[in-house]
Fold these 4 entries.
Entry 1:
Amino acid sequence: TFAYPTIKDRCPIILCKIIDHLYRERINIGTEFGTEAQESLKNIIEQLSKLRYEMQTNKPISKLSDGGENCNVWNAYLDKAQENGEGVTWYSATWMWVECYMYRRILSSFLDTQQLQKFDFFRHQKEEGFRESLASMSELGSWLQDQLEGAQQHSSTQMETNFKTLIRISLWGNKCDLSISAGSKQSATGNIVEQLHQLETKILADSSHRAWECVQAGGCNQILDVVMDNAGFELFTDLCLADYLVTSNLVKKVRFRLKNQPWFVSDTNPHDFHWCLDTLSNNETDNTLKNLGTRWKNYVDSECWEVHVDPFWTYPHVFSEMEACDPQLYSTLAQANLVVFKGDLNYRKLVGDINWETTIPFKKALQGFQPSNILSLRTLKADVVAGLAEGQAETANSTDKQWMINGNWGVIQYAGLL
């Protein structure tokens, strides 16, 4: 499976890149955060090097002791895994939560300092990916502005066409994932709208019509939640979708649900979200992006768009455990008519990261997790998938031996309450 090379190779490379960045930028970090922060980098680098050693030598996974907000949650989860007789070393533990633990453990080394507790050790990579995608954003933004003009007067057929197009754009935006590339550069190139036709054959499951029926039936006062994945170009595609839904009066409010810490290299946190809008609105060389940035900031200011930071998204739990673990979040999601889950890790947590038969229905793979109607937009980057037609996995495998892990194949999967 993809689990072993992830923990053995990909994760240690991510750690090495953090260590290298901290060393190269130590002077700049000292200038921005003070000499004490610069001194504390020595201890952080030492802790990250120790973490890398533990990972590569299959040491037992240790409890957290940093006093962070979810420290007790993680330690209780580790205790439960031990009580259940599960493996608790780096190569024997369940892949999904042990990979999540690595990112929580990285944060731990920063929480032990006074000056760098809020330091985003992936920020430079996310912002570089954003800047390198500006040309593609501009082309997509120009197309979007054309669709927004008179959107409230669009026919139902035209709205459905635009909805399905934007769903696909949001899906393929998920290809830009820095964790799958071990932190190497990932940015969008070309005109994504023009690329959609050739990408259509790579969509393994398409429930976009059922999602459209859900939105259409939800009424103009409905709430839509988006559980976000990557910053940069993918975030931009999600904002385009949200803008069309609001402008066309299909949706009254969009709630974006973000991570509360640097996570899987490129996942969106509040700083990334607001930095994106600020950077776009301050763009003096591209009026399209400037106008969209200003427009989107107004949505946030008017609370038509809301930004929520939910601790659960960086817990080790799968989503079928949410109702028991975080009942308040579960009931909050139930307020939305549709909850859109972006990306690979959210998908794995939706289906419990279980090695299902690929033909098991997507709704069944959710194992009872159904706070509302659910739409998953995911490009495959892990060998876990459900809801495919008979023989479809075999056909994909005959075309591309790496189809489950290379991010070149996607699913648009819907599970309704009824």
Entry 2:
Amino acid sequence: MLTMATYSMSILKKKFQPQKILSGMRAMVTSFAATESTIYALATGGVRCALAVIRVSGASSSTVLQQIGRFKDLPEPRKAIYRKLYDPTTKEKVVLDHGILLWFPGPRSYTGEDSCEFHVHGGPAVISSIMKSIATISGCRMAEPGEFTKRAFLNGKMDLTEVDGVADLISAETEMQRIQALNQMNGSLGKLYESWRDRIAKCLANAEAYIDFGEDENIEHDILKTTEIELRDLLIDMRFHLSDKRKGERLRNGVHIAICGQPNSGKSTLLNFLCKRDAAIVSQVPGTTRDVIETTVNFNGYPVVIADTAGIRSTPGDLIELEGMRRAVMQALKADLIILLIDPTTVCPTRKLNENLISDEIKKIFSGVSTTNRKD
């Protein structure tokens, strides 16, 4: 008697045919790589610095390396070599710079293609001369933004979650952003989604095996019940994963805080104190702040976007102040957290500071201001 696992595996192999799918994908990637040109770009920042890295990827990478480095034979892979770099357009030995060369034959490279790197001095003239020299070699062109990572994805070096992690890591400004991006780039999300896919595939195979063979073979009668339990558990796992209250998004884009209150309640002073600089003008004149002033602050590794808003009162001085009040309300409505500042001199001295007082102050601030997305 064959077991349920045997039926499940036969269904999986017949229906999904992973080897056939992978072969087809490799054929598509090979076709893509064969028709694409060799790309090059400055991999480091475009500012004046001590060192710069120029990356080349594609079928002509070996030609670029040999012509600029004047190699008869390609150097040893993944070994740094100090070399003079020459202009490939002249027979004379016109030296462009002295630098470190690295050769990465595919598929053991970042993009999965033949690649090389030039570690040179970071002066604009040096970088420009080497880039122009590479451009003269047949089949080479400047890379588009993100094209090296795009080729890495198309060549199966990383999945989409890892690609997203690379972008987040490059953009990371705080320690916690770096940790989150690095975990994603290392495949933490991809492994989770792969496990979900495997569980769904197994449930599908069990259900199809029961439908196809349940009447003819001795298959466990509770297999559908077991499959239903597994699917319910999977649904719980997915809902738990999605119910993180946008923690990852907040960490990536920053927690948005709006400082609201009446004019001259200390909003701009608080903003300057939190960001430790004079980001907003502080004045005794009511209505000094007319627009939303945003600044990003690093709080113990967490990015926080703090917005100073125009003071809100029932009698605005002019149309410009009224527009500033409207923008202040809109900023408060989309903020993750609102800091409400209250001038104690405007509050009845017999009232205690409690939730009712704060609620009344919020209603005062938001009442009478027209917004297009008004929320209670």
Entry 3:
Amino acid sequence: MMTDLKLDTALHLVSINPHWGIRLYDEGQQETKIVADVHWLECVDPAMPVLCRMWRSLVVILNRLCLLVLVLLTVAIATKLMRYRWQQQTRLQQDMYRMVEQIIGVLKRHYDTCQTSDNLQPYLAIPHVRDMLIPPQQRRSNQKLWQMAVKFLSENESRVRAEVQTIAGEDFTVWRWLPTVMNSADSTNGRKVWQCSAFDTQQGMDAYCPTACLKIRNMFNAEREHGSDWVIGVVDAILEKCAENDEIVHIALDRSSKEGCVYVKCRRPEAAGKAFRALHGWWFDGQLVTVKFLRLERYHERYPEAKDAVTSLRPSNDQKISLSEPFYKSTLEIT
């Protein structure tokens, strides 16, 4: 009994002398001044040995380091996942563009064949075009890619019309190729123009620009070009489209390329990213332009003179011919 009285007295003295550095806590771990509710005590500034203080400080530092490492690891994993997702989306978009080009190629060839043969219908069933382009073992895995290409053609390609026709007694949705009707002025001077944008290519492009060099496809058709002025026209078209980018220092055309390839070098990767966004996914002279980044080493292997290129390029004139009214209206331009 005497012991309990002494303990209560001691606790009371502690509660009224906070400068002693002892705190009283109740069962709910809340600080209290009621002696009867006290369950445990805490010393604010205990007199610990030097080794104990060092060990305590070390534990605090290690805990904070572990927390910092965990945060950095989380950020690194999240960044890697975002970059991987962006690369997957970019790769899927590039594959979709290639699929669209292949579909247009099939329809163009079929249209040309129909001009010399009266036994063919001027349209192709959409499933038939798919079966021509995708092997049976790949159709399931490429189903999403095919659906994206079909949707793209439906929304953005005015030269391909979808309609319903009866084939062998069964109704099919078919594609019919509508030849481009050029304006008389365009047919005389052969000008090349930017026509419309296929996608919002700015989405996600700021995140990662790996190099300052680009490879651009479908800027020209080597079999159709003649003379020498067309080279200047293609270079001017790129510079005019990238008018807000004054860091393009080298442009080269691969005249032997069947894909109409043009190579572009900028001062910085960020400038190459701006050019990518300005060119990728646009229709130019009736062809869908696609762009990809190219390693600097490979660019210099192909064009050694580009190593010393530092002067910003400018169009050969101020007429901006490639940015004039396009010779056909796409669905994007109509809406």
Entry 4:
Amino acid sequence: MAYRYHENRRVYDNSSSDTESYESEERRKKKTCIKRSSNGAKPKTKPILVHRSSNEQSGSDEPTSVLKETYTRNKQRANFNNSAGLTRNCGQKNMAESPNKNGGKPRSGDKITLVVDDTRFSNIEVDAIRAHPNTMLGRMFTSTLETNFTRPNERGEYEVADGISANCFRAILEYYKSGTVRCPPSVSVQELREACDYLLIPFDAATVKCQNLRGLLHELSNEGAREQFGEFLEDLILPILVGSAHRGDREAHIVVLMEDDVVDWDDEYPPPMGEECSQVIYSTQMYRFFKYIENRDVAKQVLKERGLKKIRLGIEGYPTHKEKIKKRPGGRPEVIYNYVQRPFLHMSWEKEEARSRHVDFQCVKISKSITNLAAAAADTPIDPHIADQLDQGNVVHPQPVGRNDQPGPPEAEPEGQAPP
């Protein structure tokens, strides 16, 4: 029968092996010595003091090996718990920083979340967006790693379409599902048009479905007017501007006439045209185009985008032929012409228009109380008595100057003669 020391006492051991007794004691002390923190931190271990007899110290090293193995296993378990706690706390952050192996680019079959106007649109299929690579969203999620500037935020969401309302973007998302955009009643057609232009979605009758036909047709007319005036500018207007520039002019005034208009001016009595020299374009199609004020607004915007200045568009009267001649008193003839209302365009490409019309005049420095320029220009001061008379509106005659350059006494006026 063997005995062992326990808390400075010698107790008897009824087990058949010293090893089993040692292992049971080690298992008990392991529970009391190892303390784990509640927040998953690394546990602190304390050294275990084992009281052994001289026989056990001189025996085999099996208890020592068991102690080392237990310590190593506890340390590995603590490291695992610590890493698991960090993973639970920072899992979302790690996913946002590196959502996949492609460096932030979603893979095929993934679903993403878009944030527009502080509103989240979740469960959006990436493949549906990539099916339209010509749109802005399609380019964002199909670009290569070198040109990919789309990065998720800390939650793994993508913030896009800055400046577009959530209702408008919800309607635009239908384009990636069905290929059409239905304008909701809470969104104006102009707002939807601007959003489609920003997101590079085609705005036409086949894509956009709207209950407000007037607003839809108005936006379609603006788009058509822009394209049509671009053709007029390149084919008809630009050659006239180039011709004016070759003559040294820096502005042009163009009148649009119909193709069947006849202009017959009398060479002896031409119509008064003022300072502007008008250029004429015979085009019935352009005449009909400028009948609408909306088309003129679109044309003015296009000319501003092309860098022209002092743009004026409107309707004015243009003389076509002579009707009759009237004789004014004194024998001067007066010619009466027939005028037709036709659209006109006026534009300028002058850079220094403010300096070209500036004229410098040499002004004489005078007093506000002096109206005689000859006296004001003289170097000699004016007599205060004369200045008072000038202020009162009286006419003052200059006094003759003597030989010694001193003013002489006033001459006596003959009696019975009125002063001049």
